[in-house]
């Protein structure tokens, strides 16, 4: 602990995750309706997923994979939007959120489990911001991504390159356990 004290803590280790704000030429973002069992309903979310495809998978590779698997898209331009520590009081789960532009449609992916039931919705950024602020979009990752891209646009912020360091990328679980 800071100051040299010792304290016992339980920590949930996580592979880490990525999410994507995929924005088309009309300024709309691709979102998915996904059933979330703990809440017992479908949530409107950004495409996202775990860094669980193997120990050598890089975050950008995972983001490209998730974008293709969940919404059948690829992108020519990628930037880091924000990095998030999702609940640092009890888990090392961290997430890198990307902005993907220059989109093109891929052949439909084969979907399984909860992904088989997903529906894609294209949402204008202003509408997405309003849906976050009204409480309709409640997924923390999605809210952060939507508000971050709106803020970056409003300020004319230059986003980070995909090679930018990610100091909080989780590694303990990936280094100790086999991936799924």
UniProtKB/TrEMBL annotation:
InterPro entries: NUDIX_hydrolase-like_dom_sf, NUDIX_hydrolase_dom. The keyword Hydrolase applies. Gene3D superfamilies: Nucleoside Triphosphate Pyrophosphohydrolase. One of its GO terms (cellular component) is cytosol. One of its GO terms (biological process) is ribose phosphate metabolic process. Residues 13-145 form the Nudix hydrolase domain. Keywords: Hydrolase. One of its GO terms (molecular function) is hydrolase activity. This is NUDIX domain-containing protein. It comes from Gordonia mangrovi. The lineage of its organism: Bacteria, Bacillati, Actinomycetota, Actinomycetes, Mycobacteriales.
């Amino acid at each position: 602990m800071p100051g040299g004290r010792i304290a016992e803590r339980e920590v949930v280790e996580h592979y880490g995750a990525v999410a994507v704000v995929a924005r088309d030429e009309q300024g709309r973002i691709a979102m998915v309706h996904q059933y979330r069992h703990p809440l017992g309903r479908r949530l409107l979310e950004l495409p996202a997923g775990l860094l669980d495809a193997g120990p050598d998978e890089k975050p950008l590779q995972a983001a490209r994979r998730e974008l293709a698997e969940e919404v059948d898209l690829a992108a020519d331009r990628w930037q880091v939007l924000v990095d998030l520590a999702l609940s640092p009081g009890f888990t090392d789960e961290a997430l890198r959120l990307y902005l993907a532009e220059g989109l093109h449609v891929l052949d439909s992916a084969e979907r399984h489990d909860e992904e088989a039931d997903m529906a894609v919705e294209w949402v204008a950024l202003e509408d997405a911001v309003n849906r976050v602020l009204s409480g309709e979009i409640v997924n923390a990752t999605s809210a952060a991504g939507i508000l971050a891209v709106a803020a970056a646009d409003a300020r004319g912020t230059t986003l980070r390159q995909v090679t930018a360091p990610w100091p909080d990328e989780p590694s303990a679980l990936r280094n100790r356990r086999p991936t799924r």
